[in-house]
Amino acid sequence: MIKLVNVSYTYPHTIQAALNHLSLSLPKGQCIMVTGPSGAGKTTLCLAACGILHHEYGGKKEGQVTLDGRDVTGYRSLSEIAQNIGIVFDDPEAQMIFTTVEEEILSALEYRGLSASEIEARLASIMETCYLVELRNRSPHNLSGGQKQRVALAATLALGNDVLILDEPTSELDEHATHRIVEILKNLKEQGKTILLVEHKYIHFRDIIDTLVVMENGAIRAIGAPREILTDERLRRIVIPDFSKIKEGAGDRAAPAGNATAPVISVQHLSYSYDDVPALKDVNLDIHAGEFVAIVGENGSGKTTLVKHFNGLLSPTRGDVFIQGKNTRTCSIAELARDVGLVFQNPDHMFFADTVKEEVEFGLTNLGIKDGAGIIDAALGEVRLLHTKDLYPRWLSRGERQRLAIACVFAMQPSIIVLDEPTTGLDGDEACLVMEILQELQRKGHTIIVITHNREIATNCADRLITMEQGLIVSDSPVR
Q1: Which residues on adjacent β-strands are paired with residue 475?
Q2: Residues with Cβ < 8 Å from 298, sequence gap 6 or more?
Q3: 2-243 and 245-478 agree in CATH topology
Q4: Nearest Cα to 428, choosing from 225, 239, 149?
Q5: What are the helix and strand counts (H, E) for the chain?
Q6: Which residues contact residue 268 at a Cβ distance below 8 angstroms, ignoring those fewer than 6 apart?
Q7: Nearest Cα to 283, choosing from 258, 310, 256?
Q8: Of the candidates 171, 272, 280, 291, which lies 20 to 30 Å from 85 by C-alpha distance?
Q9: How many Cα neighbours within 13 Å face the side chain of 319?
Q10: SS3 37
Q11: Is residue 268 within 8 Å of 309, Cβ to Cβ?
Q12: pLDDT tens digits, the chain, 480 residues: what are they?
């Protein structure tokens, strides 16, 4: 179906190749899983395989990519290629342009020129398959990250392509939703679909994988049956990360202040609704100085909505939120930013400057913080990125961009740092590095709040575990 022969690619204005003499075939009806460290070239491989690199990107290209025996450069446009290949990007929001979930899926169905009755039947089937029936009239942009991923997958399935390329389709999904995606892909494979899957969650997908590919530095380091690849201990650590070393590296941490002091965050009878859809329901919560709190729960349980109240991005429908004793209703976002820093679920939403240094500098300038140069160097040093100071932020790997987002927030010197899914899309080593950085910040006296779908990460790094479900806190207990 798809064949890459000796493909190399270098992005514009860069020196190091993102793909380096890579060859790979995707046989019809098989599932190939590609994994590897952040920055290995996995997303670039997806872009090459679906023709986007050759039709939309500049840079230096070598080698050949063919689809059904025809060179991708021979297709008139990406629209022509899209009749055969469907792709779900690692940033699902970038694929959404309509006002409701139903419209997103309908647009793909209408593109195929089906009759009204066929469209209605397929719409109902796809909505049910991707568990979107209850969300059909919601705006995609108000959904959780995991819900957006399901919408992007549904819109791609609506195209009815024979080949699916999925770039981290479960990166923002909880365990339950991940199992749903596995079942969807299992059914598609049984229907004869060809699947190229970029993922870090090997354990979940192992039963449908025919070929496992491990990438490093733009090249394929290993390819073959999973059982053969996993006999190599080094490759096994890449494919199946061990998060227990987060706990091993925790060292001595300053004891949280506990209930003896006034809470730095106090949530009192907080309720919030998106239009008429309740997202939080009478939530009460106190967080004290120096705590490391992990918040877990399924997609749409209210985790992100809760933490957006901590820095004023959302204002309560009912109830109150107090930060360092100040009611957020009476504070501006700029005032709250001095106390609370928020690292978004997708760090790319934070970046717009031309260099890493300027990215960090922006927040300092806004808050009028002096000695910018020294603070910038200290913040970048804290996250192991000082060597990237003069680079364009989007040239960094996903893990490096995540650490840059932390540096941008840390430089503003807030006492409370909130991170929404900071390990999304990261390999095991990168995820461990991010959590070790956060533990170091806790040792220096910061209060750390992390939203995560990964309970293994939560239990290996946090002092306290909060579980949310349907807008409620259903459990709140110490981890150790």
Answers
A1: 467
A2: 146, 174, 176, 177, 469
A3: yes
A4: 239
A5: 18, 20
A6: 284, 319, 320, 321, 322
A7: 310
A8: 171
A9: 20
A10: coil
A11: no
A12: 899 999 999 988 778 899 999 999 999 999 999 999 888 899 999 999 999 998 988 899 999 999 988 999 999 888 888 888 999 887 777 788 899 999 999 988 887 778 889 999 999 999 988 889 999 999 998 888 778 888 998 988 888 889 999 998 888 788 888 888 898 899 899 999 999 999 989 999 999 999 999 999 999 999 999 999 999 998 998 898 777 767 665 555 555 555 567 899 999 999 999 988 899 999 999 999 999 999 999 888 999 999 999 999 999 999 999 999 999 999 999 899 999 999 988 888 888 899 999 999 998 888 888 778 899 999 999 999 999 999 888 878 778 888 999 999 999 989 999 999 998 877 778 888 888 899 999 999 999 999 998 888 888 889 999 999 999 999 999 986
Rounded to the nearest angstrom, the gap between the alpha carbon of residue 310 and the centroid of all alpha carbons in its chain is: 21
At the second CATH level, the architecture of 245-478 is 3-Layer(aba) Sandwich (3.40)
Residue 68, token pair as written in the block: 């059904």
User: Domain boundaries in the chain?
Assistant: 2-243, 245-478
**Cβ-count burial of 349 within 10 angstroms (0-12 exposed, 13-18 middle, 19+ buried)?**
exposed
Fold of 2-243: Rossmann fold (3.40.50)
Task: Report the DSSP beta bridge partners of residue 448.
Answer: 292, 417
The CB density around residue 477, as the number of other CB atoms within 10 Å, is: 8
DSSP state of 84: T
What single letter denotes the amino acid at residue 28?
K
Q: List the one residue out of 192, 213, 194, 191 whose CA is nearest residue 202.
A: 213
Whole-angstrom Cα distance, residue 265 to residue 249?
Answer: 28
